[in-house]
Fold these 2 entries.
Entry 1:
Amino acid sequence: MQNLSSPAFRKTGIDGAGNDPALDALRRSGLRITAARVDVFNALQRQGGFVRPETLFRIWLETRRQTNISTIYRALTDLSKAGVILKARDAEGRNIYATPTGGGDDSIHLYLPELPPIPLHHPALRREIEEAARAVGIELHGRQLGITVGSPDPKAP
């Protein structure tokens, strides 16, 4: 892995031309760029779909230096809270993660119990959701959206 603090890396990015999707996504999110976040994002992107943290950990151990699974969980939590990656639950109720796949700002994912997330590319629906959020003081522009279908939380107001 390259040294993230080297001046050459900061100037050009991993591929030498400044075109690293992980760095671009982290910069847009406002998250601090760390080696763990970059590695986790890149590993998710290479997997191409939703994966469990334990799968990332096994891959990490096979291909990289030793780490603790808590580092992976922490990076996944930070990235998903910032909207950089997608988070869902698998059929067993365990968290699974993926990088967004195209679709630009109109990308929305529909989450149904016990099914993989369904990507929806619907610009009009996206605009409607953003307008509803804006009406209550929430700005969603450029953030990933997910709609969960299921029973409402009985504890919610």
Entry 2:
Amino acid sequence: MKSFLGLEKRVLWVNNKIMSPRPLQEKSYIFSLKIIGVSTKLQARREYVLSKQLLKSGTGIGSNIEEAQLAQSMPDFISKMSIAAKEANEKRYWLRLLRDSHMLPNDEAEQLISDVEELIRMLVATIKTSKKI
């Protein structure tokens, strides 16, 4: 098991990639933890508006993915995953804004942007595959 932010994860790591039966859920959860850390740093600098917006959209991705797991139908599942994709896209906007306004170090912002773009790709693939079923 690999530790992330002091938490033990029940996932297998192979070549620094998550190998899990629930990779989208695991990645979105880890991303949410990272966003909580960034939001906490921004609040410590008394930046409350952007930190709140970042926290809301960042954790919304994972919560919608989790909610989709108990969808009542395939259209309901697709709808919830689509909402998660929209939240992820919004998150990318806020991260770019924080990077370009120098409120977030460039390297940290770039890593988070890369993470959210991976989530977007995974969500889009899940939605497209689900529409074929």
